[in-house]
Design goal:
globular; alpha+beta; 6-stranded mixed beta sheet; 545 residues
Length: 545
Amino acid sequence: MLGALDQGTQHQPAVKLIPVSEFLTKFEGVSCAYEELAKVKSYWSATLDTMQVKTHEPAFDLLANGWLLYQTLSARMWARSGFYQSGGAFGFRDQLQDSMALVHSQPQLVRQHIVLAASRQFIEGDVQHWWHPPGNRGVRTRCSDDFLWLVAAVVRYLTVTGDQQILNEMIPFIDGRALNPEEDSYYDLASPTSQSATLYQHCVLALEHSNRLGQHGLCLIGSGDWNDGFDQIGVQGKGESVWLSFFAYQCLQDFSVVAQQRRELQLAATWQDRASALQTAIASAGWDGAWYRRAYFDDGSALGSAQNHACQIDSIAQSWAVLSGAGSTERNAMAMQSMLDRLVQKEAGLVQLLAPPFDQEEPNPGYIRGYVPGVRENGGQYTHAAIWAVMALAKLGRSAQAWELMHMINPIQHGNSAAAIARYKVEPYVVAADVYAVTPHTGRGGWTWYTGSAGWMLRLMWESLLGLDIRANQLRIRPCIPATWDGFSMSYQYQSSRYEITVQQTATGEAGMRLDGLAQHQDFITMQDDGKTHVVLILLKNDSI
């Protein structure tokens, strides 16, 4: 018997056992093979054609027009495997982040995955860090950011699709024993419960569970936040995360809007107050003088400070000060400049996650010290974080620096010559999770295919740089492109309709938007599901041309 995963609309994917003989009968013969191949080609053609772009950088276009979407779907959402990591598990935060990049091309898949992920939430509010289908055995941990990615993914899905009905989906919880005081995690089969709640309530529970603060008023880091390697910073339950506080701030602000729309005004006000308190705590305890700190150990000592021997500065604290909106204008500018000055290696073509790397310094931050200094999270380029840095620069409108870093981290640029390939050593047409920053391996790619960096790079290209901004049926284009470009074009599929968009930069003339030749009097167009092709012209005034 063979097991076929039935994704369907169920909260728990079911395994349907099909006799091998049925497969043999169904797919026997050359004609059947050709038919199935035609279906595969048709699927990928339709999927990858959802968004197409043409810019002045062919290396940019190649990734944006298919490879990143293919990598995210095939390696991350479906196989959940790659040459360097062959696991097959769903990571709670991992595939939620991947799905956020698919909302234009595969909205139904995103919807299904959000519901699936919510079904792996314990009744206390935490979630399985990862689980293996079909049995769904997994780990319960003290990881502090997992459950908040459910909120982030739901907000993203609601914004782009306008599908408010998903919030009313009834989804069950799972049950399992609580972690013992001496445990950071345990692996077990969680039990299904008879208790269910709406997706909205699952998100409320996640936000409430995140309201765990330390002595500085920052979010507790638990057994690690986005960086699992920081698993010893808060082992005693007192360590705090500056990055997580930025992320929680954003989630609280964004979901308070959802609560307001559902007339949960008191809850929305409470979340806004908590966000404000986090912002104040970050301003007080998170700032180090020229950049933002990364965390606080259980003993109250700082990490990501000029006073540290290792990890004096960490990229993601600087990026998320900007991305979350919690940092001040003046400090954001200083923090990002510090990131550029201290973490960008232009000659090597990489952006380090942190510097200097860890070796044997105390206090012990965790298993991150198990990596060679300059490799992976320990001071190498962790591409996930490098992409966030470029996103932050784009949000600040620093187009020249954003595109310079985009060019550096584009894997195709690491394979454009024999010498580059000899140094990089991995596939240049997909994103690598990491790039080494240590001699004699500087510039060498780490594991490829199975990395969440692919989905984030897709969003960086289309949204942060080219400015695609879809809100239900409203289309906005707010690009951050080089001043030297005269423009670019993109094609976007909205349901049955096609929108052919041309963006032109000009030093003179009218700035504005036209739809099918008619001037628009607002900064967006309302897209129609009418089966037609529509022509959009966007004129941007640029005095520097």
